[in-house]
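User: For my dataset I need records formatted as: sequence, then structure tokens, nothing else. Please produce one.
Assistant:
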Amino acid sequence: MEETIGVTEAAQIPQQRGEQLLDHAVRYTEERHWDVFPGTWLEAADGREICSCGDTDCAAPGAHATGPDWASQATGSASGARRMWGKHPKASILLPTGRTFDALDVPESAGFLALARLERMDLPLGPVTCTPDRRMLFFVLPGAALKVAELIRGLGWAPSSIDLIARGDGHYLAAPPTRVGAIGAVQWARRPTSANRWLPDAEELISPLAYACGREAAAARVRGA
């Protein structure tokens, strides 16, 4: 079983140095054949760090696309990645979904519950990220976004009743070690390895994920009662 980050474990936040970001971006293209594109970055201003977009109330400081044409900037070429991060060495690493993978986005507490269950059942798993705003994203085969709602209905839930979002074409996610403002860095809960090069289909993960999200929604209703 692959080591995962525990729910309460204080994982070390990697420093966001230019050479680290370039190395990671190139590795994603060379080893995983993922498309990458550079996003915004963090800049020092008045004793604090703000997003390079200039918005002091930015929702994802240092970790979002620089413009609406981001999809055309994405490249699966290592040389292209070197060129782009050569121009902007502090830029975040963003991965478009809907190309080589989709992502199932769930609350962190539900994600760790589902991850433990999936590992106990020895079900196939791809890479999984853990974001500093307490979300987990499970990488699955492309096309998941088109069928997840129907899969959830088939399990007896209304898609709107549980916090499970499928990210496909037209979306992107921030890749480790991208840092999001002052709250921390995106990390791997399950790192990309040779063992998880072949991604699972959404159908293989949807039951444990929907169950965990359903429990989370029920607990939230109880807390709000």
